[in-house]
């Protein structure tokens, strides 16, 4: 497996995923705005580049995993990026962003003769290291055979093809995160009520998550909340509930639960 992949965005999730690619045998050209975050990868053989465009190999594959829509757009529009990609190459964009951003970027890539594949990720950094990610993806049919083994090498335990329409994979991701955040808040509220009324929250969560709520999200968040482990300190729920609201409101869907969650997360 001698293919060189460009990898841009070595944050909390990018770093373990890029490490998995290296460990699977791919060569990496990496770029990160803060170059020092690439040190561990460079020590394992990755080549650190000065600009996003330098991480791109003409006709090759480049992966981006940056924070949000603005960061993704700034990488794509940075000097030389699209020109360097050119015909036959594929950009696998893995950030959680608005579907409309995906549509816009897919059209810009098509104009440059290259393919835009969106593949947002379900799974925290620990899940990436344990190769337990779930990845929905969308993109031109012609790219799929080439992209699948790369997603597997990144640590996907399951890959779900949502067709060719740009934006679809991010709709899946945003809906999933809305459900995860809703579940976390509901569990917390339920167990507070339970505890304040003198019943053991751990016993309650054990019963519920081994019967009617035997799903990974309820089990992991339930255990954490029942044990009063520190809450996840992450700006991701606020960002992604914002994306959910904007996406729903574009098709004039009211979002009462998302509005409540957004208010709670802001406080
Ligand atoms: N962490 C998770 O558990 C998780 C799970 C599923 C999906 N996601 C999604 O994965 C994506 C990355 O999340 P993360 O947790 O890895 O975030 P993170 O740790 O905050 O890293 C963000 C990355 O984006 C880069 N970046 C930010 N603004 C930029 C800009 N304007 N130009 C260039 N690069 C920029 C950062 O560079 P610097 O290092 O220079 O700041 C860093 O490499 C997000 O879309 C997130 O929603 C995360």
From TrEMBL:
Residues 167-266 form the 3-hydroxyisobutyrate dehydrogenase-like NAD-binding domain. The keyword NAD applies. Keywords: NAD, Oxidoreductase. InterPro entries: 6-PGluconate_DH-like_C_sf, 6PGD_dom2, 6PGDH_NADP-bd, HIBADH-like_NADP-bd, HIBADH-related, HIBADH-related_NP60_sf, NAD(P)-bd_dom_sf. The keyword Oxidoreductase applies. SUPFAM superfamilies: 6-phosphogluconate dehydrogenase C-terminal domain-like, NAD(P)-binding Rossmann-fold domains. Residues 4-157 form the 6-phosphogluconate dehydrogenase NADP-binding domain. It comes from the Bacteria. Signal peptide: none annotated. Belongs to the HIBADH-related family. This is 3-hydroxyisobutyrate dehydrogenase.
